[in-house]
Design brief:
Number of strands: 11
Distance between the termini: 35 Å
Protein name: Group II intron reverse transcriptase/maturase
Oligomer: single chain
GO molecular function, one term: RNA-directed DNA polymerase activity
Radius of gyration: 25 Å
Organism: Streptomyces vastus
Keywords: Nucleotidyltransferase, RNA-directed DNA polymerase, Transferase
InterPro entries: DNA/RNA_pol_sf, Group_II_RT_mat, GrpII_Intron_Splice-Mob/Def, Mat_intron_G2, RT_dom
């Protein structure tokens, strides 16, 4: 199959898959108690497998092999896409498909500790991607608006905008939730029980269970069984984690003074000295916003711990904090805090890059400049730095970020200048500016200039509230 034929086949398959997903989503929304049967045929359907392959091929990890040593490119060259998809489809249909253990690798976290990342084989990634295409439209019909992580059409900026919106509406006390090793400790039995509420196809449930129980092969070559958790790195893991963590969303949806309460009920509770609550969740990071006092926040923190216990999860006592909006909090890389506006007596909620995020960006710039061989041209260094700076600024653009952008821009400028001075020992400022700044002060080459964060204009992210459609609702419209 040549490139043009593959693109045409993928386009045709995507239209078929989108149509089926739209039906699944509509049926799930129209009947919240419906249990879906005969989904396994969709998972093994050639169209679903082809779209799944396109997603796997386009992921960053396409060049990373699992325990079988095969990458996407190797499969394309050695076996061929058609033969590979036929082989996987046949294995699914005749029930001989069995997931292999994930290859464990340890990656550094921002705090210096290590985080486990599980890398499934390409074959397993393909089946997980097909499973996700089938299951996501169904579970999205049940997921509540308060969660934003790893969901279509939703992003971290929505979670930040919602936090700011309710903080301005007198939800001033905040429980900053931190779940211990969430992806490692989710109870398989509790998760599968929640999956069975929507799925009646035992073959699909067995396939999900097989992925959960696939096991881990450590960096030392030691095999371990998996009795809990969903390995980070798997395509299906974020969806399954959301299924488990939705117990929290459902709890606050029906909580007295929670999401489902009317304005009249909230006002009455306020007059009676009772609190109102809002949950904002992004995967396993969440905030409980409390319109009340600190005692109410302490009480709801203990309540959250009890809600999470049946799904095998625990709150970290050290990292689960109770803060007031005047003291500020860090969430998803942002600092959210109420300040007095300079020159006035008015106070506003401001969002801007957290110090931890800025330090991480600075460390990244420093590392790039230290690791780049001074024998390379400056253009090679700028090709690495510019995309990183551009992406960081794009994330923090909808906030009060101008001062931070200026600071990061000048810090990066000095790091690049240091690299140039190591490249040309004893170079004078006049000579450096003539060669690398065209006689001015900003660094550039024949092909590009150093990206300047300080020139990025900031904006305001519009709070979308409940008006975030799923891709399948948009398809219906």
């Amino acid at each position: 199959m040549n490139t043009d034929e593959l693109e045409e086949a993928v386009y045709s398959a995507e239209r078929k898959v989108r149509g089926m997903q739209t039906k699944l989503h509509r049926w799930a929304r129209e009947d919240p108690d419906r249990r879906f049967d005969d989904l396994f045929n969709l998972v093994s359907d050639p169209a679903f497998l082809l779209v799944a392959w396109d997603r796997v091929r386009g992921n960053k990890g396409a060049r990373t092999a699992g325990v079988d040593g095969r990458t996407v490119s190797r499969i394309e060259v050695v076996q061929g896409i058609e033969d590979f998809l036929d082989e996987v489809g046949s294995a699914l249909r005749d029930r001989t498909f069995q997931p292999l253990p994930v290859r464990e690798t340890m990656i550094p976290k921002a705090n210096g500790k290590l985080r486990r990342l599980g890398i499934p084989t390409v074959r397993d990634r393909l089946v997980q991607a097909s499973l996700k295409l089938v299951l996501e439209p169904i579970f999205e019909a049940d997921f509540l608006p308060c969660s934003y992580g790893f969901r279509p059409n939703r992003r971290a900026h929505d979670a930040i905008a919602e936090t700011r919106h309710f903080a301005m509406s007198k939800y001033e006390w905040v429980v900053e939730g931190d779940i211990k090793a969430c992806f490692d400790e989710i109870s398989h039995s509790a998760l599968l029980e929640r999956v069975r509420r929507r799925l009646g196809d035992k073959r699909v449930i067995s396939l999900v269970k097989a992925f959960l129980k696939a096991g881990i092969l450590s960096e030392e070559g030691i095999s371990r069984e998996t009795h809990t958790g969903t390995p980070q790195g798997g395509i299906l893991s974020p969806l399954l984690a959301n299924v488990a963590l939705s117990v929290l969303d459902e709890h606050f949806d029906q909580h007295p003074g929670g999401h489902h309460s009317t304005d009249t009920v909230r006002r009455r509770r306020k007059r009676q000295g009772e609190a109102n609550y809002r949950l904002v969740r992004y995967a396993d990071d969440f905030l409980v916003l409390v319109s009340g006092n600190r005692e109410h926040a302490v009480s709801v923190r203990d309540e959250v711990a009890r809600v999470l216990q049946p799904v095998g999860l625990r709150l970290s006592e050290e990292k689960t904090l109770i803060t007031h909006i005047d003291g500020g909090l860090d969430f998803l890389g942002w600092r959210i805090q109420r300040h007095r506006k300079r020159g006035t007596a008015r106070h506003y909620i401001y969002t801007y890059p957290a110090k931890k995020s800025l330090k991480a960006a600075m460390a990244k710039m420093k590392t790039m400049c230290r690791r780049m061989d001074t024998g390379q041209p400056l253009d090679s260094l700028l090709r690495q730095i510019n995309p990183a700076l551009r992406g960081w600024c794009a994330y923090f653009r909808p906030g009060v970020s101008s001062a931070t952008f200026d600071y990061l821009g000048h810090y990066t400028w000095w790091q690049v200048i240091g690299w140039i001075k190591r490249k040309h020992r004893g170079i004078t400022w006049k000579h450096l500016r003539h060669i690398y700044c065209d006689g001015g002060w900003w660094i550039n080459t024949e092909h590009r200039e150093l990206f300047h964060p300080g020139r990025v204009s900031t904006t305001r992210y519009r709070y979308r509230g409940m008006n975030i459609p799923t891709p399948w609702e948009a398809a219906v419209d």
